[in-house]
Design a protein that fits this description.
Helices cover 41% and strands 13% of the residues. The chain is an alpha/beta fold. The chain folds into two domains: 21-50 and 311-460, Aspartate Aminotransferase, domain 1; 58-308, Type I PLP-dependent aspartate aminotransferase-like (Major domain) (Aspartate Aminotransferase, domain 2). It has a five-stranded mixed sheet with strand order 2-8-7-6-5, with helices on both faces. A three-stranded antiparallel sheet has the order 9-14-11. α5 links the parallel β3 and β4. α1 packs antiparallel against α14 (362-374), α3 (75-88) runs parallel beside α11 (296-308) and α12 runs parallel beside α16 (415-430). The longest helix is centred in the C-terminal third of the chain and has 20 residues, at 312-331. 49% of the residues are buried.
């Protein structure tokens, strides 16, 4: 594929420190083989996340200088509120310092113990915030999404038949809302079609249950709709996004993704009663409703970023850069999730390391090796992040997908950086037989992947456990 040229010029550069393999070996061992505990200045190319890692534009930096830091009624809030209303169409807009706080406020307000939240696939913080309320986060993504090599234009779609069955069995008393994550991060950054959203909306209407979006990558999802869904080729990204959200009752958003900012998020919704209850909680834990845990300058940068992310030349390069990385890996035979999603390339760790069972965390083993050998930081989305002990049997349950996510920050890395990443992953794939499994030596009760410590198994230990 021919990648479009970067639709920007570079004004400021950040030097990268060269770190020897010996130092990387020491750092990753001191970190307990957990990439989250490695200092960021020891990373060559950081693909841990696309959240909060974007490079802001000159207009956003200029907006920071226009920050109105009034405690109440900041002019930046009104600019931000009006921008969200215009793009998303929801009247009640509640700023938060990031997406997981938006999730926490929503679920703390509307969930009770024993409730169920259906979703295509919950990501880690969404799942944790649901379960923190004693509720169940139930994934209902279509079957095609669980096959890494199967091509489907919208592998993020929520299965409407399973949703209808779930709502029929539980009733609206136990399902306060349904969510759709766009794009579907846990399943490979896969998009959701508008046709699927309409079907889900119809099911929700029959059961009188509201529909919310996790909207953090809404612009990328809208781009895929235009590229892949019949009837949308001549529509603007803004128009597609507005139609998409018109089928919902509200959304949560981490603006650290498609808001192109380093901090910020929000809740937006139609339900005035829910908005009032959430706002009352916001005042207790985040701040006054017109700043929601943010400085006025952050609200201004977020308002500008939400507009810039809809620029079609930006999206063409953004999606194209990620696709180009995926194409280089696929041509070399590296197993990846197909088709490539919008914000990341996902390595299929089970196919990459078939000799390492899920009980030995093959995704994390691959993450450790990528850093140790090449200084690249990725993140595991598999048995370390989502493995858990079954409450009924006491046995370990593992996710169906065992992935390593190479999340590309927005407007940060060049095509040459992507070539370096591809060449490094390909070289590691050629040496994959020497990688060993891991075991956990410490884990927290929730979101264990952030702070867990692990150690490498010897060949004999790995064989014994297997």
């Amino acid at each position: 594929m021919r990648l479009p040229a970067e639709p920007f010029r570079i004004k400021v550069v950040e030097p990268l420190r060269r770190v020897s393999r010996e130092e990387r070996e020491r750092l990753i061992r001191e970190a307990g083989l957990n990439i989250f505990a490695v200092p960021a200045d020891s990373i060559s190319v950081d693909l841990l996340t696309d959240s909060g890692t974007s490079a802001m534009s000159d207009r956003q930096w200029a907006g920071l200088m226009m920050g109105d830091e009034s405690y109440a009624g900041s002019r930046n809030f009104f600019h931000f509120r009006d921008t969200v209303r215009e793009i998303f169409g929801y009247p009640h807009v509640i700023p938060t310092h990031q997406g997981r706080m938006a999730e926490n406020l929503l679920f703390s307000t509307v969930l009770k113990k024993g409730d169920v939240v259906p979703n295509n696939s919950h990501f880690d913080t969404t799942r944790a915030n649901v379960e923190h309320q004693g509720a169940e986060a139930r994934d209902l993504v279509i079957a095609e999404a669980l096959d890494p090599v199967r091509h489907h234009p919208f592998k993020g779609n929520l299965d409407p038949v399973r949703l209808d069955r779930t709502l029929g069995e539980l009733g609206r008393e136990r399902v306060p809302l349904v969510m759709i994550t766009i794009t579907n991060n846990s399943g490979g950054g896969q998009p959701v079609s508008i046709a699927n959203v309409r079907e889900v909306r119809a099911v929700c209407d029959r059961h009188r249950v509201p529909l919310f979006f996790d909207a953090c990558r809404f612009a990328e999802n809208s781009w895929f709709i235009r590229e892949r869904e019949p009837g949308y080729a001549n529509r603007s990204i803004r128009e597609i996004a507005r139609e998409l959200f018109s089928y919902g009752d509200g959304c949560t958003m981490s603006a650290k993704k498609d808001g192109l900012v380093n901090i910020g998020g929000f809740l937006a919704m139609k339900n005035a009663e829910w908005a009032e209850r959430i706002t009352n909680l916001l005042i207790l834990v985040e701040g006054f409703p017109t700043y929601g845990g943010l400085a006025g300058r952050d609200l201004e940068a977020m308002a500008i970023g939400l507009e810039e992310v809809l620029h079609e030349d930006y999206l063409a390069f953004r999606i194209g850069q990620v696709a180009h990385l995926g194409e280089m890996l696929e041509q070399a035979g590296v197993p990846i999730v197909k088709p490539v999603g919008g914000h990341a390339v996902y390595l299929d760790a089970r196919a990459f390391l078939p000799h390492v069972p899920q009980s030995q965390y093959p995704g994390q083993a691959l993450v450790v090796a990528l850093y140790r050998e090449f200084g690249i930081r990725a993140v595991e989305v598999g048995s370390l992040m989502f493995g858990h002990r079954d409450s009924q049997t006491g046995e370990m349950a593992y996710p169906q997908l065992e992935l390593v996510r190479l999340a590309v920050p927005r407007r940060v890395y060049t095509t040459e950086h992507m070539r370096f990443v591809a060449e490094s992953v390909i070289e590691l794939y050629q040496q994959r037989d020497r990688l060993k499994g891991l075991r956990i030596t410490y884990e927290a009760p929730v979101l264990r992947h952030f702070t867990a410590r692990l150690e490498e198994l010897s060949g004999a230990e790995a064989a014994a456990i297997r």
